[in-house]
Here is the input.
Amino acid sequence: MLKISLHIKKVFVVLISAILNGIAMNLFLIPANVYASGFTGVAQLLSSITGGAISTGILLFVLNIPVTILAWFKVGKSFTIYSFVSVALMTFFLEVIPIVQVSQDILLNAVFGGVIAAVGVGLTLKWGASTGGMDIIAMVLSRMQDRPVGTYFFTLNAIIILTAGFLYGWEKALYTLVALYAQTRVIDAIHTRHEKLTAMIITKKAEEMKKAIYSRLMRGITTIPAKGAFTNESKEMMMIVVSRYELFDLEHIIKEVDPHAFTNIVETAGIFGFFRKD
Here is the structure.
């Protein structure tokens, strides 16, 4: 029952996220010719170049097909399914929500569009799914090897901004930069701004915890003997470094295996060595 309830909540969060992204795009960003980040921005830009012959929603869906296939084999079925549902719902709402310019002020469009979209993306990430595109690529890279994911996000967004500047004027490009900044700040506030996090789990069920983590996350674990200062009870402390995309799964693994475990999540500035399970 607990897992069914969790799946229902995740689907509801993904639905709300898709609605918010549809509102942000069709009521604020698209009417103002201000561009979103990642694959959504690429789809928006391609739609503009074709003169709207192909809608942003359809292009977003098509762009996400290859990365969804990649995620299915490299990340995991559950994450991929929720991400695909997120993209499909966002495509649907981009098609059904009319494109209406709420405000003539381009700055208001950039800020509100960026913030509303970011709330949707942040909630999706917090609940262990993604909005597809670069989120999936980042997840794949974090699973395979320790690469600076932020570089890929920056490069793609830089291409969007420069292309928008050349085609539609540098004022549009600068407002796009404002929207991207607002979006990044809100996502960081809702989820986490750090790419990597360290979890220190103190539990009496270390063996069960290790098996559960290994079955769902490709991460190494270090165990350290621990003892309660007040009770003198022997336990184990497990230390594991995860990417921001794996935090939701880790939290729920801990709750399932040992609801009484004490867990400290700390932000990780950097690591040395292999960031994956051999």
Q: What stands out?
A: The radius of gyration is 20 Å. The chain has a mean pLDDT of 83. The chain is about 65% helix and 10% strand.
